[in-house]
Amino acid sequence: MEEDQNPQETQTQPVVETPQESVSFAPIPVKQKSKSGLKTFLGIFILIIFVVGGFLIFKDNGQKSSEPTATPEVSGESVVVSSPTPTPEPVDKTKVVISIENGTGIVGEAAYIRDILKSAGYSIFKVGNATTTDNVTTTVTFSSSLAESVKTEITTKLNDIYKEVTVANSSTQTDDVLIVTGLRKGATAKPSASPSASPSTSPSPSPTATP
Fold first, then answer.
1. Is the dihedral of CA 25, 31, 34, 37 positive or negative?
2. Per-domain residue ranges of the chain
3. Chain segment 101-117, per-residue pLDDT in tens
4. Is 79 helix (H, G, I), strand (E, B) or coil?
5. CA–CA–CA angle 127, 148, 102 (5° rounding)
6. pLDDT by residue (tens digit) across 10-68?
7. What's the rounded Cα separation, in Å, for the pair 113 and 100?
């Protein structure tokens, strides 16, 4: 009986010890390495997701905030650009009729301003003398239908030449422009001719009566 029990004990001891050693040592290092690697990988992946998501959110917010600021700038620029777009049609100066009257009595005053306006492109003139010849102020009367560009140009030239310029508009005037000249800058009025004094006659001696 004792001999039968001894071999059984010797057989059971090595069978039990060998699986305990394999189970206790082999799986532990494998599980620790895999868990640490997964944790680091997951941490890096989550960090990348946060960085990319934050960048996209910031980019979208920047685009949305820039859109409303751009609209008023574009609308403001369109208003400013659209206001000066209409340009006046060019005026044919060769069809403008200009009447010039000498109002100073100084010879050549009407022809002087005529030559200046002719060099500016005007070609139709009527030259004569005014009813008064002692004008100091130059008067210019424009037809109401005349273009504003012509009015401005002629008025500017007259202001450069004459001491004083008076501008008027007329709806009944036949000519486009009527200019009555006055004194130029630095000029003096023509002296008026004073009536000559009649020569004094000495009284003739009365005849003496002879006795």
1. negative
2. 29-71, 93-180
3. 999 999 999 999 999 99
4. helix
5. 20
6. 444 454 444 444 444 444 454 455 566 777 878 888 888 888 877 777 776 666 555 55
7. 8
For residue 165, list its beta bridge partners.
138
Over 50: is that where the pLDDT of 93 sits? Answer: yes
Joined together, the tokens standing for residue 196 give 């000559």
**What is the SS3 assignment for 199?**
coil
- Report residue 38 as tokens: 């997964």
Taking a C-beta distance cutoff of 8 angstroms, is the pair 99, 175 a contact? yes
Cβ partners under 8 Å of residue 158, min gap 6: 113, 138, 140, 165, 179
State how far the Cα of 132 lies from the Cα of 185, in Å rounded to an integer: 19
Which DSSP string do the residues of 130-196 spell out, in sequence order? -S-S---SEEEEEETTS-HHHHHHHHHHHHHHBS-EEEEEESS-SSSEEEE--PBTT--PPPPPPPP
What CATH number is given for 93-180 in this structure?
A: 3.30.70.2390
Q: What is the pLDDT of residues 157-186, one digit of tens each?
A: 999 999 999 999 999 999 999 999 999 998
